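Backbone geometry:
***
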Amino acid sequence: MFGNTLKQHFMVMGADVDVAVGGDRFEVDVQYTGHSEVFQIRLPDDGSVTAKVLDSDWRRRHLVLDVSHRRFGVNQKYLCGHDEFHWFVAALPEKTEAVSVPEAMEALKPQAVLTEQRCKRVRRHRRGNRRTTAYVRQGEWFFIPCPEFDADRQIVAHNGTLVRGQGKPHHVEMLCRPQDGETYVRGKVWHPDHRTIYLDRWHKVLRNTEVVPKDPVEDRKQEELRESLFHMNFVD
């Protein structure tokens, strides 16, 4: 019955899902099976993990999945949904209080993006859009317009790439990384799983908050524990 409840939520948003029991940790992935994409969810066979849907939006085709480990008292939330052409799963920041789809989408935005959309007064119903007056988004990358940026005395690479871990690279027509450590792009940005966008001016590049670095030793230990209990195979 537990697996059937999860299946119902995924089916309502139009997704195929395979829920299985086995192993010693929770796993989630999106598998490409030739003609279709299928969410793969595996629950440990000792019953130590519970997974429930906190919110779903069938129009946007997104849902928020909350996974909890009873013994260790830790949990992990995921935003599962559809972005342009494909299904995706994104692990939300560890301490997020998001319980709804809009809140989960906001939780994945870097602070600079949140600040920019407040300054530009982006209306609440537009904040889930991929293009607003404050930013343009392609996959996990946000681009904030920076008309004041001057690249004349900087080294500009042509046909550069933006890549996260083992994911597929996003290709950019022009890329500049000045000594301040920021990254700026301009021109065409393309990726096989997303619509090509064109940036007519320099934009600062920011990655979403799905991966949060852990510095203190105790945080690293906590992250290792979480990785041993919850695992996401999906890489965009």
